[in-house]
Amino acid sequence: MGIVDERNERVKQVLNSLYNKALNKSLSIDENAYKTSLDKLFATTAWGFREILLVVIIGMRLDNSFKASTGLYDCNPRAIYEGPIKEFLIEREIPHRKSGPLNVAKATVGLDMIWAAQRRPSEVAVQVVKLVEYMENSEEGFLERINNVGISLLRRLIAESNRMEALSVEIEPSADPEFLYYLCYELITKTPDAGNTPQKIAASLLKNYHASMETGIVVTGEEDRASVTSTTSKKPGDVNEESSDGIIYKVYEITVKPFDLARIRDSYDCIIKYNEANNSDLNEIIVICRKEDCFIDMKKSGLHSYLGSYAYQNIMYYYWDIYEWVSDTLQRMTQGGRIAFYNDLNTYIEDINTAEKVKKLWYELHQ
């Protein structure tokens, strides 16, 4: 067994030990010194703060000399989080982000007040710093403090998992396009979830449309979160229609935020880079958005679904009303395609990492 394998095995052992102790209701932990700080980590939608704390706890258990306040990266946080820690979270069905802790800790040497001041929300980052200080600033009872915070953290993560599971919905498969449109409208309008909801709906609609029609078109972007930029994913848009061998036919940008000149320029840069890297000539983007999100200088169409166009250098942007587009796509799908879309949407919302507000609304819509 190599050094990395040995380390990963130790991480698993620590996590399983803390998890089993967290499940032990007879084990009493005195949280008075850190309860307020830990509670605040679970009162924010920025999950990365509680995940970076878990990384710190593991780092301290692996090496008594490790100090996250001055040398966070000494514990190889990316490797241990994206390896054994994430594997553990998936196995235990605990909500988490793909690289949550690394996103809140990037470009920092240590978790201190300077780091906290640069994070958002900073008041939550401050609580992480306080928890790190609590665990580090003790020679006597050092291991006990780490274990206690770890058990307390796991208990809250387990409670989150149980709470999310309680919001799951048993659906009766429906092919009614009007009912499905109602669900989509409510989700997009009330819980856009930073753009994740409309992007998931649009990608799943296109995927199931093509699957039900047996067109052979492959739709990509369904598994990406809205925060994944086109540059990062090396794709020209949020959602793409492609051939089976990866040739992109159509590019879609899905948004419920203004797709203005700044967004157009960002999109243009991604398209140009993609074209250069792949020797392609993509020059049209379909923007699926609300009417109020259209670029004010676009050429208006005078129609209801197709709203207008804007030419930026050699790239054309065609704006479509998101609600009309969803309804139209549902109407054009086969019944089997609509049922598959409904099941996909339910599966996405049941996923442990889908936002609680989305789960709650889905639950309410089915009562």
Short recap of the structure:
With 367 residues, the protein is an alpha/beta fold. It has helices at residues 3-23, 35-41, 48-62, 68-71, 77-91, 100-105, 113-118, 122-136, 142-165, 177-190, 196-213, 230-233, 261-278, 322-332, 335-350, 356-365, and strands spanning 218-220, 239-242, 248-254, 284-289, 299-300, 306-312, 315-321. The chain has a 7-stranded mixed beta sheet with strand order 1-2-3-4-7-6-5, sandwiched between helices.
Number of helices: 16
Mean pLDDT: 91
Strand content: 5-15%
What is the distance, rounded to the nearest whole angstrom, between the alpha carbons of the first and last residues? Answer: 53 Å
Name the helicity range. 55-70%
Shape: globular
Record the strand order, biggest sheet.
1-2-3-4-7-6-5
Care to describe what's here?
The chain is α/β, with parallel strands linked by helices and 367 residues long. The protein folds into 2 domains: 3-165; 177-365, no CATH class. Helix content is 56%, strand content 10%. It has 16 helices and 7 strands. The protein is globular and about 75 Å long.
Tag the structure with descriptive keywords:
single chain, 367 residues, alpha/beta, 2 domains, globular
